[in-house]
Amino acid sequence: ELALEILFCERHRSYLLWRYLQVEPNATIGEIKSMFHKNHPQWYPARQSIRLDPKGKSLKDEDVLQHLPVGTTATFYFRDLGSQISWVTVFLTEYTGPLVIYLMFYFRVPFIYAPKYDFTTSKHWVVHLACMCHSFHYMKRLLETLFVHRFSHGTMPLRNIFKNCTYYWGFAAWMAYYINHPLYTPPIYGEQQIRLALILFLFCQIGNFSIHIALRNLRPPGSKTRKIPYPTKNPFTWIFLLVSCPNYTYELGSWLGFTLMTQCLPVAFFTLVGFIQMTVWAKGKHRSYLKEFRDYPPLRSPILPFIL
Amino acid sequence: MAATPAPGTSKGAHSDVTGRRKKGPGALATAYLVIYNVVMTAGWLVIAVGLVRAYLARGSYHGLYYSIEKPLKFFQTGAVLEVTTCARSWTDASLCVFCLVSVSLQVQSEDSVLLFVTAWTVTEIIRYSFYTFSLLNHLPYLIKWARYTFFFVLYPMGVTGELLTIYAALPHAQKTGLYSVTLPNKYNFSFDYHSFLIIVMVSYIPLFPQLYFHMVRQRKKVLGHTEDYSKVE
Known about the structure:
Chain A is of the alpha+beta class. Chain A has 7 helices and 6 strands; from the N terminus they run E-E-H-E-E-E-H-H-E-H-H-H-H.
């Protein structure tokens, strides 16, 4: 049996929070977190970060005590991660907002536009098409959150929900305001432009969905394993030959399609900002793949084939 | 100009005074930075001297702005070159606002303009000489002290002047539709400069305290360690 000490670390100070005597050597970090939570009810396991070194990496829940470099007394450092919220909750909230907000602008709910336009509809058919596409996009995201995605992490810091919702909801309102405006100007090249845009949008929506399914199938239910994704029988996944994160590639394509369809500058801004963020994520993911897998296909780029 | 930040011209001046000498920039880069900072210091001195002379000549401070308008605009544009010095910190956010406000507004005769021009002129003279001396590794304690002490008065002065100026410019911006874009247009976009200015004013409420207290913290760090680090950080 081991004796366990948990020290609270805060910048340069640390003090003993708790001492457990007689802990089973084959106890996992997850079990230890539960024990700690019982003694400190304000710190539920999701907000505990347990490390061997105050500045080191957090230990995983699956790590077993006796496999860690500890003596007969294990000293852990604890850090409070702050209030946590589940990824699923965050996703559902941040995606429901744009869906509802856009529809409010589409139906011209009062106090947005001049009163004479309340509850009227646009005379441009592209505006109806745009509404369908936008709504479809966020419905798809909500359903994927509920039924497709398998999350590595259960939770994230609470403040993220405010940041993320501001981003999604804010941009949705900004875009929807102009697209559904009584003075909206349809695309210069008319039907040709809209048709091309719609094809691009739908192609990329199917592509994005195919990638999500392929990634899901890499990971058995309840597991957090990581494997290299490869092309499957679905032609939309063949892009894995050239790109590490084709879900982001297809997402960019969808929004480019939407920008073309609506010919609206705020949509272009949203696409640009999203692209920058996704590129950052894709580069990070690409780097992790390279670090973790010796045999990672060298031809792949993070997000844009050969370019980025 | 890909130079690693010289001590005293980068965030190093604002953040940790570790005493560890970072590898400085090459000779060419240092020369560029020194020249840049000397020119900026000189420029702000010109503006300051111009202000004082004009005041003495007129006997009042009305219309003072016009006397220094040209050099002021010139040096504001030069300040855009700050980017090449791998800057830096929060002070430049305020500088950007200053440039935006004074270059674009038509209300130069306002006393508020004089208020922030004076405040920023003094601030900038001290700041650029601070960087110049730091680069040359001969920083007089007086300059360092001035940099981290004068701001107590100069920052509130400058911010007050800016806010008053923006406020004074609002009616003009609204009436003339300055820098604004209206619907309908083929990009389906609109921008109202008047509303934007109001948002800028409101944003001072969270931003200015952060800036101010950041300087207060820096002051503790920098001036509190003078016994340990007699040379420049």
